[in-house]
Design brief:
Structural class of chain A: mainly alpha
Radius of gyration of chain A: 16 Å
Number of strands of chain A: 2
Number of domains of chain A: 1
CATH topology of chain A: Arc Repressor Mutant, subunit A
Structural class of chain B: alpha+beta
Number of helices of chain A: 5
Oligomer: heterodimer
Order of helices and strands of chain A: HHHEEHH
Shape of chain A: elongated
CATH architecture of chain A: Orthogonal Bundle
Number of helices of chain B: 21
Low-confidence stretches of chain A: none
CATH superfamily of chain A: Winged helix-like DNA-binding domain superfamily/Winged helix DNA-binding domain
Strand content of chain B: 5-15%
Shape of chain B: elongated
Number of domains of chain B: 4
Largest sheet of chain B: 12 strands, mixed
Mean pLDDT of chain A: 84
Number of strands of chain B: 17
CATH class of chain A: Mainly Alpha
Radius of gyration of chain B: 37 Å
Strand content of chain A: 5-15%
Helix content of chain A: 55-70%
Chain lengths: 110, 664
């Protein structure tokens, strides 16, 4: 089915959500991505990806409690679904497989 | 956090919540707020605001934009039915209120409809000419010595037309008119007075006046050629098959060389017959040779140019200027300037001297337009005021509506629909009034009567409906806004909250302006009527009652007098050159003793019955004596009756009356 494959950025976002566990909301995801990848993550882009992931059923979201910050607006927290976990595992598996096929020397020489 | 925390720009916030899907909105707003706070700290308030605005636009993506939901549209349609139904009930329930509103709006709509009809007619003028976009009229300005005259003349010298056609590039042809060829056409024992012009053969090339009989290229070429319209041909000969028949006009015989299709109503050029322009050198030999072809004879000729489609008007104007400079050398004391006027602008043009055909002054139309708009707006104010005044009655209804879930939008629509319905009812009445009032409106002014027909067409009906909808929306807007603001909880809680009527300054302004406009209109009407009455019943110093003035129109006075004398009801008949007291005079100069001291006087030529008929009072002397016409010596001596003013002016009176020279 088209759409079950993960794009590179989608995979990164999904991994970040998983890594942040209970604190995965849009701004935090952006910050975490920037910290780990070293490249600027635009809120608009992340937002679009989150939306797409939710459409694909890889993440689910719920609104948090209202707080004083953010002008009293609630945060939307994301969590990886089982399908999401499966997709991540599958992606890792593909990579591991490919890694295992590479003769050790070739890359160590870089 | 401090109290005066910088806030994100409000408009951008509003815009975001307008376009964004409700399910995504809150989170998005929160994110943007968080970033905004962050940016305020790192980049300053201004920068943060700018980024916020940009972000709001960046978030406008397919997945964030709210989609118009089918259900909503459906609900709107269903609600429209409900609005119409409740509006109808409301209109029926408050018969007096509805009647006043409908009547008020219908009168103002009527004014608007008359204006639309008028504009529609004017814009259809001269549209039947195939080459209408390439036809221009040459108009002239005449400056005597240093006296600059801003007025343009619709007429131009025949010489100008000729020279332009010969020497100016881009001019394909020039149709020349010489106005006022009106004459009696005689054939057999029939005498038929006809109106028309002299025109050259290019007329049929430039304009689209199709001939049903005859050759358009040559019809007006030879002297003594005559082109009649179909109707006239039938009137004269009983048939349109009239080619080569001869008729007499004045002392000359003319040959019919063409029969033109009847003119469309909306043609500013009007004629019953056209005489070939080449006739003039023969019939008006003396005048023609003397000055008809001189550069400053620009009073009776009209020139219409047909330009090549790609002619540059600026170059053409330069050529005209050069031509004028060249030709102005041939005349003394005056300077003539030429300009082009597009055919499409002629029917509705600024005031011009020597106007040709039927035209309307653009200024008058503007004034009429502004007045019509004032009347319409005033009627809308009236509706607004009456509606808001009824707020007490309607407030509960709105309270109930709102408490069972009506949105602001729905309340707003309800009142807009109501006012549009009232306006549509007004349109029905206005249409009836339109038909009734049409003949009266057309007879307001002779120029209106000759120009405008006010016949209904699909376009004008569509405009009427558009006008009605616009009026309905305009009238309903303020009440709708007012009612939308009513808070359900306040009006339902404890009867009526008087605070409902606070902040109604707007309404006061409307009332005052409406009263001002109405008073101005009433005052203008009353003053106009009084003036009119004053003119009619003003004591001119002579009797006008039961006197009928009959224009002789070139007929023999003795014959007419004889005919009239046989009618027993006619008590007395007198003859005069002009009708006194209606603003027309014959001018002349009068001298007394001193041959160098001549004064301008207005005079009338009358017979002996004139004075008794009009009951003029003579303070000295006696009426003319018809019996004593000529002196025995045979020398003709005219007699004059003068007014006291003249005696004062020439200081006559102390002395005996003396001879005075008088040359009319």
């Amino acid at each position: 089915m088209k759409g079950t494959n993960l794009g590179e950025f989608e995979e990164l976002v999904l991994l970040t959500i998983a890594a942040l566990v209970n604190d995965a909301y849009s701004v935090a995801i952006c910050d975490e991505l920037e910290k780990n990848t070293g490249r600027a993550a635009k809120l608009g882009v992340v937002h679009a990806v989150l939306n797409r992931l939710e459409e694909k059923g890889l993440v689910k979201s719920k609104l948090g409690e209202a707080t004083n910050t953010r002008g009293g607006k609630r945060k939307r927290y994301y969590a990886v679904t089982n399908a999401g976990k499966a997709a991540l595992l599958k992606a890792k598996e593909v990579r591991d497989n490919l890694w295992s096929m590479i003769p050790g020397m070739t890359l160590k020489n870089i | 956090m401090t109290v005066n925390n910088p806030k994100p720009p409000r408009l951008a916030e509003k815009f975001l919540s307008w376009y964004c899907k409700p399910s995504l909105l809150e989170d998005l707003q929160g994110d943007l707020n968080e970033y905004f706070d962050r940016n305020v700290k790192t980049k300053g308030v201004r920068q943060a605001k700018l980024i916020y605005i940009l972000d709001v636009f960046k978030f406008m993506r397919l997945y964030t934009i709210r989609k118009p939901e089918f259900v909503n549209t459906l609900i709107n349609w269903i609600m429209l039915g409900s609005y119409v139904k409740t509006s109808g009930r409301n209109i029926m329930r408050n018969k007096l209120f509805s009647f006043i509103n409908i009547a008020g709006l219908s009168v103002s709509l009527l004014v608007g409809m008359l204006l639309i009809g008028l504009l529609n007619d004017i814009h259809s003028y001269d549209q039947f000419h195939e080459k209408k976009n390439h036809i221009y009229r040459v108009i002239s300005n005449y400056q005597y010595l240093d006296q600059v005259d801003e007025q343009w003349y619709a007429s131009s010298a025949p010489k100008a037309g000729k020279l332009i056609k010969e020497s100016v590039p881009g001019v394909q042809d020039a149709a020349l008119f010489h106005s006022w060829a009106n004459n009696d056409l005689k054939t057999g024992d029939k005498v038929i007075p006809l109106q028309g012009h002299w025109a050259n053969e290019a007329l049929f090339t430039v304009f689209t006046f199709p001939l049903v009989q005859g050759n358009a290229a040559t019809a007006l070429k030879e002297p003594f050629s005559l082109v009649l319209t179909e109707d006239v041909a039938i009137k004269v000969f009983g048939t349109t098959d009239a080619i080569n028949k001869t008729v007499t006009m004045g002392e000359h015989e003319y040959t019919i060389t063409g029969v033109a299709k009847n003119l469309p109503e909306f043609s500013h050029i009007k004629f019953e017959m056209l005489v070939s322009l080449s006739t003039r050198p023969v019939t008006e030999k003396e005048q023609y040779e003397k000055y008809e072809l001189s550069w400053d004879n620009m009073w009776q000729g009209y020139t219409y140019l047909l330009l090549a489609p790609d002619t540059d008007l600026t170059t053409l104007q330069q050529n005209l200027d050069n031509l004028a400079v060249e030709q102005n050398k041939t005349i003394k004391n005056a300077k003539i300037t030429l300009k082009l006027q597009p055919l499409n602008d002629i029917a509705l043009s600024p005031q011009m001297n020597n106007a040709f055909g039927t035209t309307m002054n653009i200024k008058d139309v503007w004034i009429a337009g502004v007045l019509a708009i004032i009347v319409i707006i005033s009627a809308c104010f009236n509706y607004t005021n009456l509606s808001i005044a009824r707020a007490l009655k309607r407030a509960r209804e709105i309270g109930v509506r709102k408490s069972i879930g009506a949105t602001k939008r729905q309340v707003f629509s309800q009142f807009m629909v109501e006012s549009v319905l009232i306006a549509l009812a007004g349109l029905v009445i206005a249409s009836v009034l339109f038909v009734v009032i049409k003949p009266f409106f057309l007879s307001i002014d002779s120029s209106v009567q000759s120009m405008i027909k006010l016949n209904l067409s699909l376009v004008s009906v569509l405009y009427f409906i558009a006008l009605t909808l616009a009026t309905g929306l305009l009238a309903g807007f303020l009440p709708a806004v007012f009612f939308t603001r009513i808070e359900a909880i306040k009006v339902l809680r404890s009867g009526m909250d008087l605070k409902l009527f606070k902040n109604l300054n707007m309404r006061k302004v409307l009332i005052v302006s409406q009263f001002t406009v109405s008073l101005a209109f009433i005052a203008a009407t009353v003053i106009g009527y009084k003036q009119y009455k004053h003119f009619i019943s003003f004591d001119l110093g002579f009797a006008t009652e039961n006197i009928i003035n009959v224009r002789l129109q070139g007929n023999k006075p003795e014959l007419i007098r004889k005919e009239f004398e046989s009618i027993p009801e006619i008590e007395m008949i007198s003859q005069s050159k002009v009708t006194a007291g209606i603003g027309y005079y014959y001018g002349g100069s009068m001298k007394y003793k001193n041959p160098l001291d001549s004064s301008h006087i207005n005079h009338n030529t009358i017979d002996a019955n004139y004075i008794p008929l009009h009951k003029h009072k003579l303070i000295a002397g006696k009426n003319f004596n018809p019996a004593k016409r000529d002196e025995p010596s045979g020398e003709k001596i005219g007699e004059a009756i003068v007014s006291e003013n003249i005696l004062d002016h020439f200081k006559i009176g102390d002395e005996k009356r003396d001879r005075r020279n008088y040359s009319p």
